[in-house]
């Protein structure tokens, strides 16, 4: 009996080892894309790449940068009349006509859902005065993000000489754009009802990204197509708290390829949590010089190889806060980064009170002191 139990135990161990080995040796899916990449949305680590990683045409996925810059330019809900020349452009459209009144928010919806070239051009002219000047703004931001294989000529993605990016660059760009709650909210919608025009009237915009309904957890990002670029797709997906970004360029089977790549990449990634810590923030106007503070809750972060101890945490605050400070009051933010790339920021809350310093009694002025001495001498 003892031998049977020992044999059974050995078989279980052997099966577990074989299962682990099979998992470790799982082959990545074969995709038909000319270039593909998957990264973690949090740490930005590369989980998968294939094909050419140099500059390629990326069609309307260009509008990720255009929409991101439009959101960052501010004044999203101020109405204005579209430039009539800017909207005279071929290809996909949100239906703008000369004289239409819109907001920048409308234009972001128009470029991220139906992929309106008119929306992209109208936003570019509104922000920079011309599409050429806006392209300079796009390229400056690309340099800031370290997109070494990316160059923009148009805000819409219609090809211009030298216009292109790589799959990995587009994944990094999407990661940055998705930090904006407004961007994420728009690109995750399968359809939206907006009111614009001259005069405004209600109309529905439909998202060209079918992956939103095909694959659970998908929350963006952007499709693209031209004869030169072929079918291009940038997508983002969340499963069991893990977030990934996938890009394919020139891919005839993009929907299926993205689903296969997500299945593979989710199996390779993990969740990590930063180590909790206590921090100090300087205070003025109190007997206390500083207050202890900490994060109420730290996020779980999607990673490939990164470990919790490799995450850097920096306190972001004004040089000091003014007393009084109450326990639970937000006094700073904690910036969590990996390899120099910011992941997120969380509020830091005061753990103790820093009451306002009691006012000191007013000291008598010099004239008052002289009169007081004279009064004592006389009396």
Question: Keywords for this structure?
Answer:
single chain, alpha+beta, Peptidoglycan synthesis regulatory factor (PBP3), Domain 2, 379 residues, 27% strand, Beta-lactamase
Helix-strand layout with pairing:
Layout: H1 2-24, E1 35-40, E2 46-51, H2 63-72, E3 80-81, E4 101-102, H3 104-112, H4 117-128, H5 131-144, H6 167-177, H7 181-187, E5 191-197, E6 200-206, H8 211-214, E7 218-226, E8 230-239, E9 242-249, H9 254-268, E10 270-272, E11 279-284, E12 290-295, E13 301-303, E14 312-316, E15 321-322, E16 330-338, E17 341-350, H10 366-378
Parallel strand pairs: 11-15
Antiparallel strand pairs: 1-2, 1-9, 3-4, 5-6, 7-8, 8-9, 10-13, 11-12, 12-17, 14-16, 16-17
Helix pairs in contact: 2-3, 2-4, 3-4, 4-5
Structure report:
- It is a single chain.
- This protein folds into two domains: 35-268, Beta-lactamase (3-Layer(aba) Sandwich), CATH 3.40.710; 279-350, Sandwich (Peptidoglycan synthesis regulatory factor (PBP3), Domain 2).
- Helix 3 (104-112) runs antiparallel to helix 4.
- The chain is globular and about 95 Å long.
- Strand 1 and strand 2 (46-51) form a beta hairpin.
- It has helices at residues 2-24, 63-72, 104-112, 117-128, 131-144, 167-177, 181-187, 211-214, 254-268, 366-378; strands at 35-40, 46-51, 80-81, 101-102, 191-197, 200-206, 218-226, 230-239, 242-249, 270-272, 279-284, 290-295, 301-303, 312-316, 321-322, 330-338, 341-350.
- The model is unreliable at 1-24 (pLDDT under 50).
- Helices cover 31% and strands 27% of the residues.
- The protein is an alpha+beta fold and 379 residues long.
